[in-house]
Amino acid sequence: MSNRQLSTDVKAKAGDVRNTLMALRPQLEMALPKHLTPDRLVRVVMSAVQNNPKLLECERTSFLSAIMTCAQLGLEPDGVLGQAYLIPFKVRNVMKCQFIPGYKGLISLARNSGEVSSIMAQAVYEKDHFDYAFGLNERLDHKPYEGDDRGEITHFWAIAKFKDGGCHWDVMTTSQVNRIRDNSQGYKTAKAFPKNGVIRSPWVDHYEEMGKKTAIRRIAKYLPMDVQKAAYIADSYDTGKTTNLEHGEIVVFDPDTLEHDEPQMIEGNASKLDQFAAEPPHDADTGEVVEPDTNETPAQIALRKLEATQTRGDFQALLGEMPEDIRKEIGGERLADMADRFED
Questions:
Q1: Structure-model confidence comparison of residues 136 and 230, the more confident one
Q2: What separation in angstroms does the CA of 285 have from each of 76, 147, 269, 270?
Q3: Quick one: average pLDDT of 271-287?
Q4: DSSP assignment of 308-334, as one string?
Q5: Calpha distance 76→67 (Å, rounded)
Q6: Which of 167, 186, 187, 341 is the most buried (most CB within 10 A)?
Q7: Residue 81's closest CA among 53, 103, 100?
Q8: How far apart are the first and last CA of the chain?
Q9: Quick count: other Cβ atoms within 10 Å of Cβ 196?
Q10: What region, left, alpha or beta, does residue 267 occupy, with left being phi > 0 and alpha being psi -120 to 50 degrees?
């Protein structure tokens, strides 16, 4: 298919999506909060489609369900403001769409609730003055070091102040944040398959922002219901579940009920600002998305990829991209046995 034919096909599909959304305008208007109009949401969705044409290949039901979730929460999935994202991924060769709330989206939901006066998160560096305590005499005292080199990050904290005068805060060590990072399917896959030897993940390129987001999600259970729902959707996607809102209620499709194929990398043109908010399992620069599978280690993902290669050349090329620690974990003897299945 020529580039002109491809462009025409994309435009036709985009036009069909726009017409469908305009036909759903009454339903969108009923679901949307006052600060977001149906016309605005349609424009934002079409902009997201333009930035990532893979969304046009998504099963229509899952695509519209993700958009309705955006509408019910009042978040714009533009991939620029960091409020929300529409993420395409494959399940048994069928493209699905998942709504993912961003870090700034969680903050917006809290502020728009009318119950929260302020909400924020910060990273703590080793040269900062930082003191905290839980219990009857709670305290949170953080004064950043004013020099050029603050050292390494040691903690993250998040706090929400309520209009009734109360507040809730929590602190996470980098070890706690890193455990969440290491269990993320997106990070595990990025680590197993670096691009030109470089791990491409928002956890690598924007670790501080991802840590702040993790701290916000930690306190979400004490925030207004919309924030809790959005945080639950994000947490579910990290653990391999497909989740959306239907009539304000969370509907979860457990991974055991979904047909899983091997991870599919999806090309896109997401903005670099996408890296700052969500932790969806997709490439930080290209928008590539990986089908979630929460139980696999990087070595297991690498093994499955290697087993799927059809030629010795593909096998060697994939092996050459793997970090040394992944190859050592698999073991030289096992890799040699796998390579022996190819005929010279």
A1: 136
A2: 20, 31, 8, 7
A3: 34
A4: H--SHHHHHHHHHHS-HHHHHHH-HHH
A5: 9
A6: 186
A7: 103
A8: 34
A9: 6
A10: beta
